[in-house]
Amino acid sequence: MSSLWLWVALGFYSLGLAHALLTVARRRQAWFRSALLAFGLGFIFHFVALVEHGLALGRFPVTNISEATSLFAFLLTLGFLVVYWAYKMTPLSVFAFPVVFVMTLASALSQRPAPVSPLVKASWVPVHVSFALVGYAALILACLAGVMYLIQERELKRHQPHAFYYRLPPLDTIDRLGARALTVGFPFITLGILIGMWGAAGAWGPDWIRDPKVTLSFVLWFIYLLLVLSRVSAGWRGRRAAVLAILGMVMALASWSANYLSAHHAFLGH
Amino acid sequence: MQLSLIGLSHHTAPVEVRERLHFPEKDIPPALHALRERPGVGEALIFSTCNRVEVLARLEDGLEALPLLADFLATTRRVAPESFQSYLYHHSQREAVRHVFRVAASLDSMILGEPQVLGQVKAAYATARAVGTIGSVLDEVLTHAFAVAKKVRAETGIAGSAVSVSYAAVELAKKIFGNLEGRNVFVIGAGKMSELAARHLLRSGAQAIFVTNRTYARAQELATQWGGRAIQFDDLLAHVAQADIILSSTGCPHYIIKKEHGVRFLAERKNRPMFFIDIAVPRDIDPELNTLDNVFVYDIDDLEQVVAANRRVRQQEAVRAEEIVEREVDRLLGRLKRLELTPTIVALQDKLHALRQQELERARLGTLTPEQRAAVEEMSRALVNKILHLQLTQLKRLPQEPDGLKFIEFIRRTFQLKD
Lengths: 270, 419
Fold this sequence. Notes:
The structure holds two protein chains of two kinds. Chain A folds into two domains: 1-114; 115-270. Helices cover 77% and strands 0% of the residues of chain A. Chain A contains nine helices and no strands. In chain A, helix 3 (65-87) packs across helix 5 and helix 8 runs antiparallel to helix 9 (238-257). The longest helix of chain A is centred in the middle third of the chain and has 35 residues, at 124-158. In chain B, helix 5 crosses helix 7. The longest helix of chain B is centred in the last third of the chain and has 39 residues, at 300-338. Chain B is built from 15 helices and ten strands. By secondary structure, chain B is an alpha/beta fold. Chain B has helices at 15-21, 28-37, 65-77, 82-85, 94-104, 116-131, 136-155, 165-177, 192-203, 216-226, 259-269, 300-338, 341-362, 370-395, 404-414, and strands at residues 2-9, 41-48, 52-59, 89-92, 184-188, 207-212, 229-231, 245-248, 274-278, 295-299. The chains are: A mainly alpha, B alpha/beta.
């Protein structure tokens, strides 16, 4: 998938990337406002690109891996902007901008017009994929929050403040952000998986359960469940929740890469 | 125009010297009057705090500033000039402006970035302005200095983080809990330092729930004062789990709160974070507690370490602040130069006479007799001179007026005089 608008969006995202790199190199938030503006513009052009692509195809554009990556990067940007609006959490940009840039780049570069399997045309598939992607995006945010939490906690435990101590938000704020991201993401990933199960059972028969991606997704869902429940019932917060969120992210990455192993999730129509 | 500043500060002079030259508040107006009476002094300001005594003045060109101002100090403060002369610094023109900016922006303070000095400079300005020794130039310098100080505070971290132990404790609490609103504080042992830290915490929104002390009466006293509850010293462990921030400073020879207590508290609190501030020596809180998740223990050395790190940050930020000051000095000097009086008067004269010439040429006086033409020319010259005269008498007073430069700016704009 490669439209002009996606490249324009990527151009704006690259300013965000430059901001992140510069901030790390100089250990000082460098022209954040301009970077945020560029990122916002990138978001708008990204939206235009998605709509245009969808109209051209005549369907919701999540039918191959490049399209799904693009939508995912878009959701991540949306998540970041919402978090920024709610928490004014500028340091998150250092982590989020590069991730969005890389994903959009990956999507823009994979240009082959994938042959679409008849399965993918089923109406439940876009819903399944989009819901799962929202769940992933929330998990990435929770994971980024987890990373920030671990860094800030280390600073506070060691009694020697470094640059991070001054820049990162308070522990409690980061912890809440992580929790909230998961609370929003959990229903989506649950519904996404349920729809997938229902659809797959109908399309492939009893075979569906042996797909590696399906297995990994169940593990991922279980970690997600653990994350949400442990906080409510056992008071697993702070460090433990942060580590678990990062673990969840690793699991999600495994699950995502399983797209290349799975016969049914490769989007390519074997 | 000659702008001069002399003075001495904690950087150059010991307190014995500073206290002798110090101006009590009530002495400043008469001293300003006396300085203004001296020949060649156009404007004046006296700035006197416990850390510095400084005199800023606009003098006539060619005047020797240092002897004049030093003599003024010696006479008004009735001290021998030799006793302080070696401690004096003297800045003129650009350096004087920069010095005022640096002082106002707290770059010259004993504690870098401390906020009080700006208020003191503002007070000194208000005094001098009320006395009438602030004219156009000093007004411009001082008001610009206030703006620079504000800019420095806003754009650099020079006043960013705490440089005292009690404020550092509050900042750490905020880094852990975010908002302190509604957080519970437990004060164990009443000492000067813990009271100070407790007050800072309360002012930041925290609640005091429990106070305990070896002498129960003292605990009760503080509890009423802070709206909390006094606890018998022996019962304290039963209440710690209800507190988010524990401030401890007893004279106990051993740890009061140990790691196993911490484990219990956390279970009771469902792992909500706890922040122990231990300013007792010997320590009250077992440092092992710091190894528990969601528990943060800071002893007095840790707090000092944070303060030292914050100081280093301020010093780094000061470098950026100096750059801002340098840029602003340039801007102000540029403006002062543009709005100098004498060139403005010359330009105004030229402008009006040029206008007269232009209009005479346009009037086609060829039909008049030579006598008539001479009369018209004479009349136009007289008219221009009359107008100029009216303006000049006003203009020459402007340097003594605080708003002088704004009027000069106005004149330059209305008559379209080129910069």
